[in-house]
Amino acid sequence: MNKTRQATLKAHYRQQPPPLGIIALRHLPSGRTLLEYSRNAPGSLNRHRFELNLGKHRNAALQADWRRDGAAAFSCEIIDTVRPSDDPAFDADAELEALLALHRVLWQEQGQPLY
Fold first, then answer.
1. Residue pLDDT, tens place only, 72-85
2. Global pTM?
3. Would you call 26 exposed, middle or buried from its count of C-beta atoms within 10 A (0-12, 13-18, 19+)?
4. Fewer CB within 10 A of the end CB, N or C, for the chain?
5. What are φ and ψ of residue 40, in 5° steps?
């Protein structure tokens, strides 16, 4: 790959907004899940892992499970995404909140406990 093509690809990558989405941190032994929406889903997952590894996560129950069972006992993933719109009336936060509410209802209907 030539340098010009590589520079073009890098510039294109940097201009892409981070994915908007719903993230889930699931404690596999108990099934308890932390559901959250984020305007930067991969960054949010990284932040949660970082806080958990430091022992400073804001959710004490989640932190206790992480401390007791370790990272291998968790599944951390982006479970849904929202595609940004060019429409000026598009409200990403409202879309994400509605999607999160839908996922919480689905989780509870399936009997999945939440943090």
1. 999 999 999 999 88
2. 0.82
3. buried
4. N
5. -140, 80
